[in-house]
């Protein structure tokens, strides 16, 4: 079920009202069944995949907690293989087979493996990673094994964050399912405001920008560099508003019921370095890779060369996590390269005095970081490496920009897009969280946002970008 | 206590409102009771666009009262929305019996051997090229076996008890009050951003509204897409093969009728019409007889389409019915 759909409005109201009408056990069952329905709306059959991973990880958690010595490790490996196995089969099999086919075609030999013809289960990477974090934390002794199967199933399936995160840790979420949250008006106000703001970002900003982005990226060869540059700037904000909007709605929906999910974004485009960007962008995924891949590989406690390799590898994996395509791998690899270059600069090229005065260096770093991040989004969004190359070539061919911007939107709406971006940045700079202490103010702002969502919202391309992952 | 009552009341009200989206039977019942209005009352194009200038009530046609002068004929119609239930009825025809099948479905048909069995295949122009990209053989003569029947029942039950967002929205927000609010948004988009719903195209003189699928500059569904002689030859060949198929399966007469796109008739400022219908109908290789609707539509000075709709109005429909009854 999409957050920006009519059905979700009724689903959310009914589930929340029913939640506050039930005793604790009833609430858990309600949330689990509601989450099953929420997921089944996309494609019912795929709920079986979730069921299998839930059963495997539930028992793996209990057995790991009770086992000792090497047996613990083997049980963890078994659980991880199951999770990664599903991910590999559904997400990466065709990718690997395509690459194999390309290699074998050089020898005039077809690939011996058939291609699979099915849609990727929605949110597979998200719930798989969340399930994996549970067994790893139990193995590490940071989390007690959950004995209650229904609560464990809810940990994996909790509808607000089931299909696009935030990827929660068991330490933050499981105890909340054991708690009984009374109805709280402040939670309701905070949650609803968060939902309204998330929806605004999604339907008013992201989906409006997407009209230009799709137009540019569908046929990049037909557009000039200036058009593609604007398309890329718009995509930089589209993906942010789309994904952070989803996270806001997820966090808000849970908040209304009393649950506190982790934050996933912290004004990432105000970062002054790439490493800062990754502390502010998709925080739950960055944290996952840091804790479960980068640190176990040695983290910062290894030689410089090894450290560079680790970073590069982790970011490549992060790219691959997003999608089974070389464009995503390059996107991740570029971020890895940026970080390595920054580390080398910090180590070998430290200047005694700053080149720029202090009041200029921060804005310069901010813009420089933004541009670096923006250029990587070209690979993330482009349909294939050839298109990405065309787009970058045209963007950097300053002399042949032409004086016309091609756009499916008229001048007024293009201006409106820029105003929305400016408004978004100003809001993020000065009002990180909309204050809901004053109830009258809450009603006015909430109603204003909802009216704006309706009147200025674009409801035609309503899929969330991160659902495909 | 008051809060509890409020909570449970809200729970019940919202649950009921949500459940309305789960079954077509509920919406039909609500409509029959007069609790909701027909969301197509101003036409399908208005329903998409909500542009107030096209909010004109669709003409209600007189129910068909044709006398059965050909009791010995059984008429079978494979048709799309132009000839759907509510637009076309058994009473419109002079035949002894009338059965209609939706063009996209794959029904089983039992022919009445005591009568002359006549089949009409009606398709709108915009889908003609897709539908006849290969011979159109969707009717099966006979009765379904147990497995096929069970499959159909499961399919229908699935459609009966599964949420449908479009249906839900039309139940909740089709009253004139909500349509006025929708019009505010549509007007804002049109006046400020020069944008309408992506499903419609408004003519340059702003007087007519068209379905985007056939009013777009190019593409297989467009009235303005160039068609090669080779494609025309292939289409005619597939129409002929379709004709042979149904003849072999027991139909005595088979007719083709292509309902012209609104954009083909009224969209003169949208582009250069490709004359698909004429290319097919006048093709010397065509063996299937046709009911020519294009000629009367293109030469008429009257408006033969509803203002906010893609389909023909009562007068347009009558032209087609007269053509059919004359052949019967």
Task: Note down, in words, how this protein is organized.
- The complex is a heterodimer of chains A (about 475) and B (about 325).
- Chain A has about 475 residues and is mostly helical.
- Helix content of chain A is about 70%, strand content about 0%.
- Chain A has helices spanning about 5-20, 25-40, 45-65, 70-105, 125-140, 150-155, 170-180, 185-220, 225-255, 275-280, 285-295, 305-320, 325-350, 360-380, 385-395, 410-430, 440-455.
- The mean pLDDT of chain B is about 90.
- With about 325 residues, chain B is of the alpha/beta class.
- The radius of gyration of chain B is 22 Å and the shape is globular.
- In chain B, the strands form three sheets. A five-stranded parallel beta sheet of chain B has the order 2-1-4-8-9. A two-stranded parallel ribbon of chain B has the order 3-5. Chain B has a two-stranded antiparallel ribbon with strand order 6-7.
- Chain B has 13 helices and nine strands.
- In chain B, a hairpin with a 6-residue loop joins strand 6 (about 200) and strand 7.
- Classes of the chains: A mainly alpha (about 475), B alpha/beta (about 325).
- At the A-B interface, helix 1, helix 16 and helix 17 of A face helix 1, helix 6 and helix 7 of B.
Mean pLDDT of chain A: 90
Strand content of chain B: 5-15%
Across the major sheet of chain B, the strand order is: 2-1-4-8-9
Distance between the termini of chain B: 72 Å
Radius of gyration of chain B: 22 Å
Low-confidence stretches of chain B: none
Number of strands of chain A: 0
Helix percentage of chain B? 40-55%
Query: How many helices of chain B in DSSP terms?
Result: 13
Number of helices of chain A: 17
Return the structural class of chain B: alpha/beta
What series of H and E elements makes up the topology of chain B? HHHEEEEHEHHHEEHHEHHEHH
Largest beta-sheet characterization of chain A: none
Average residue-wise pLDDT of chain B: 89
Task: Give Rg of chain A in angstroms.
Answer: 23 Å
Largest sheet geometry of chain B: 5 strands, parallel
Low-confidence runs of chain A = none
SSE pattern of chain A, N- to C-terminal:
HHHHHHHHHHHHHHHHH
Terminal Cα span of chain A: 15 Å
């Amino acid at each position: 079920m999409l957050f920006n759909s009519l059905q979700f409005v009724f689903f959310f109201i009914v589930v929340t009202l029913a939640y506050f009408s039930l005793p604790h056990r009833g609430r858990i069952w309600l949330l689990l069944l509601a989450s099953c329905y929420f997921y089944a709306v996309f494609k019912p059959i795929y709920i079986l995949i979730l069921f299998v991973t839930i059963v495997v990880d539930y028992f793996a958690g209990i057995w790991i907690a009770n086992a000792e010595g090497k047996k613990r490790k083997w049980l963890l490996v078994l659980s991880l293989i199951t999770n990664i196995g599903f991910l590999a089969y559904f997400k990466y099999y065709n990718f690997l087979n395509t690459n194999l086919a390309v290699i074998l075609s050089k020898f005039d030999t077809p690939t011996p493996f058939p291609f699979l013809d099915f849609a990727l289960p929605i949110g597979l990477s998200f719930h798989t990673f969340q399930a994996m974090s549970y067994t790893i934390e139990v193995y590490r002794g940071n989390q007690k094994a959950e004995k209650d199967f229904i609560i464990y199933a809810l940990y994996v399936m909790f509808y607000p964050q089931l299909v696009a995160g935030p990827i929660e840790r068991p330490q933050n979420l499981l105890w909340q399912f054991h708690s009984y949250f009374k109805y709280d008006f402040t939670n309701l106000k905070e949650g609803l405001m968060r939902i309204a703001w998330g929806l605004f970002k999604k339907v008013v900003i992201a989906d409006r920008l997407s009209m230009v982005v799709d137009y540019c990226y569908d046929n990049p060869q037909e557009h000039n560099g200036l058009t593609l540059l604007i398309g890329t700037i718009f995509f930089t904000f589209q993906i942010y508003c789309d994904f952070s909007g989803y996270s806001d709605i997820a966090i808000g929906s849970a908040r209304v019921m009393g649950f506190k999910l982790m934050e996933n974004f912290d004004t990432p485009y105000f970062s002054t370095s790439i490493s800062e960007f990754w502390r502010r962008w998709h925080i739950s995924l960055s944290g996952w890779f840091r804790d479960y891949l980068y640190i176990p590989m040695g983290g910062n406690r290894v030689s410089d060369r090894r450290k560079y390799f680790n970073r590069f590898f982790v970011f490549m994996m992060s790219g691959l996590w997003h999608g089974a395509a070389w464009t995503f791998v390059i996107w991740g690899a570029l971020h890895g390269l940026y970080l390595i270059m920054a580390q080398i600069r910090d180590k070998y090229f430290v200047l005694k005095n700053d080149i720029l005065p202090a009041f200029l260096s921060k804005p310069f770093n901010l813009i420089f970081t933004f541009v670096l991040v923006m250029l990587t989004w070209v690979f993330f969004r482009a349909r294939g490496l050839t298109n990405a190359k065309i787009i970058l070539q045209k963007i950097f061919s300053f002399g042949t920009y032409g004086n016309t911007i091609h756009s499916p939107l008229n001048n007024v709406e293009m201006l409106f897009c820029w105003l929305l971006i400016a408004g978004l940045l100003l809001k993020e700079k000065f009002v990180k969280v909309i204050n809901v202490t004053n109830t009258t103010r809450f009603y006015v702002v909430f109603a204003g946002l909802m009216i704006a969502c309706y009147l200025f919202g674009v409801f035609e391309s309503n899929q969330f970008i991160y659902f495909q992952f | 206590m008051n809060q509890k009552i409020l909570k449970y009341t809200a729970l019940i009200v919202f649950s009921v409102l949500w459940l309305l989206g789960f079954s077509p039977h509920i919406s039909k019942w609500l409509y029959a009771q007069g609790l909701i209005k027909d969301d197509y009352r101003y036409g399908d194009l208005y329903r998409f666009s909500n542009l107030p200038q096209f909010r004109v009530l669709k003409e209600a046609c007189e129910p068909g009262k044709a006398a059965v002068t050909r009791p010995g004929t059984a008429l079978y119609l494979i048709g799309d929305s132009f000839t759907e239930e509510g637009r076309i009825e058994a009473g419109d025809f002079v035949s002894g019996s009338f059965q209609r099948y939706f063009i996209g479905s794959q029904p089983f048909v039992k022919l009445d051997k005591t009568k002359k069995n006549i089949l009409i295949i009606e398709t709108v122009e915009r889908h003609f090229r897709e539908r006849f990209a290969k011979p159109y053989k969707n009717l099966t003569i006979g009765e379904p076996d147990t497995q096929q029947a069970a499959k159909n029942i499961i399919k229908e039950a699935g459609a009966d008890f599964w949420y449908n967002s479009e249906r839900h929205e039309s139940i909740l927000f089709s009253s004139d009050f909500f349509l006025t609010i929708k019009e505010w948004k549509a007007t804002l988009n049109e006046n400020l951003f020069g944008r309408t719903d992506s499903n419609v195209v408004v003519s340059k003189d702003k007087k007519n509204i068209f379905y985007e699928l056939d009013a777009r500059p190019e593409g297989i569904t467009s009235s303005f897409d160039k068609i090669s002689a080779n494609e025309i030859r292939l289409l005619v060949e597939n129409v002929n093969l379709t004709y042979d198929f149904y003849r072999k399966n027991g139909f005595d007469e088979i007719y083709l009728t292509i309902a012209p796109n609104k954009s083909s008739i009224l969209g003169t400022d949208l582009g250069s019409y490709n004359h698909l219908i004429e290319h097919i109908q006048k093709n010397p290789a065509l063996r299937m007889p046709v009911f020519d609707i294009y000629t009367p539509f293109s030469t008429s000075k009257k408006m033969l389409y509803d203002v906010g709709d893609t389909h023909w109005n009562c007068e347009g429909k009558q032209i087609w019915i007269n053509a059919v009854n004359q052949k019967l």
